[in-house]
Amino acid sequence: EDIPKFLNSPQTPLFNKSHLLYGLNLAKKAIRDADQVVIVEGYLDVIALHQNGYANSVSPMGTALNEDQLRYLKKYTRRIVLALDADAAGEKATLRGVEVARQALDRETELVFDPRGLLKHEARLQADVRVTTLPPGLDPDDVVLKDRQEWQRVLNSAKPIVVHVMEALAAGQDLEDAKVKSSIASQVIPLIEDVPSAVERDTYRQQLARLLKVDERSLLGSQKVRERTRRSRPGSKEEGQITDRQQVVITV
Description:
This protein is α/β, with parallel strands linked by helices and 252 residues long. Helices cover 49% and strands 9% of the residues. The chain has helices at residues 24-34, 43-51, 67-74, 91-94, 98-103, 115-125, 140-146, 148-156, 161-170, 178-194, 198-212, 216-232, and strands spanning 21-22, 37-39, 57-60, 79-84, 128-133, 159-160. The protein has a six-stranded mixed β-sheet with strand order 1-3-2-4-5-6, sandwiched between helices. Helix 7 (140-146) packs across helix 8 (148-156).
């Protein structure tokens, strides 16, 4: 009974799945016209969206989204929206790595959401990558076939990667619990630090502080503690070295 829904042919020099995007040959003009591309997970989602007037939609070929694919898309637009289903956008998928997916390329059947990888791609490509979440239990084809305008509302709700992650991690959590706040902060702050723009970093810190109802200075303090801990770990290059924050007292 273990029959896949879709079965790609093996990887060959002529068919490199990780370098292709399904539907791009038909979507190029629409992407340019809308100055936006929407990446969904399934081939049938792409077909349904094209049939209902959203021809700026493409899909990975059953592999993790990577920078090569984003570079192709950048030829047509710098505005990229990832339309993820509710499960894939949740906490379980949030911290999965692209490298894990690449190691299992032939078995991977879903779009892998790796926020740190996407932030690096976004910075290198100078693109605007946003994430939107579908209503629970619905795929893009379900949404657009039920109500074409609802799909546009889904796209309009797309948020920056860091904002999406912090809200996904906070969903359903007891934000009055100090340990929950600490756990969310420990996962989001490293993402914020990966953002190259100082203005955006400050904005995201403010948003996280409001979400967790904590003083923004406490978020900055926890980041400094992590940096000191990382430097003092055994095997660290800086272990045993004197940093500019340390003082040396010599008694004679």
